[in-house]
Write a structure and sequence with these properties.
Strand content: over 45%
Order of helices and strands: EHEEHHHEHEE
Largest sheet: 3 strands, antiparallel
Distance between the termini: 18 Å
Strand order of the largest sheet: 1-2-3
Helix content: 10-25%
Number of strands: 6
Structural class: alpha+beta
Radius of gyration: 15 Å
Length: 128
């Protein structure tokens, strides 16, 4: 999908991991993680809002510019990380006042909500 679409980076930085993120990435509470918020477009129409968290050592393998131009999976592969599995759940949620404008939809519109933990060949969580 990353090769047929483009992503716009909305936010980028390093933050203390929220409790759920620390748990999913198997990090100590408050460990530093890279947090990126992006909107994915297909034919200039926004269709996906993504918030990703990476452990700090993995996040430091790419910078803000690279994350704006290259799919995350390709950046991880380039850094020698071999993604081998993912655990995800899909549910529904309503677009809030922050996401709706980014997706150019009305607040309260129904959305699919995907939560995914991606792991590498050693079963280490590398993305949430």
């Amino acid at each position: 999908m990353g090769l047929r679409t483009r992503a716009k980076l909305i936010e980028f930085g390093y933050v203390p991991a929220p409790p759920l993120v620390a748990e999913k990435l198997k990090l100590k509470p408050g460990a530093t993680v890279q947090r990126a918020v992006r909107v994915r477009y297909h034919e200039n129409v926004p269709f996906s809002h993504l918030t990703t968290y990476l452990p700090e050592d993995i996040g430091k393998q790419c910078d803000e510019q690279e994350l704006s131009e290259t799919p995350l999976l390709l950046l991880m592969e380039r850094a020698g990380i071999k993604v081998t599995s993912a655990d995800q759940s899909v549910s529904a949620k309503l677009a809030d006042t922050m996401v709706a404008p980014l997706l150019e939809i009305e607040t309260g519109s129904p959305l699919l909500w995907v939560k995914r933990t991606v792991s590498d060949q050693s079963d280490r969580p590398v993305e949430y």
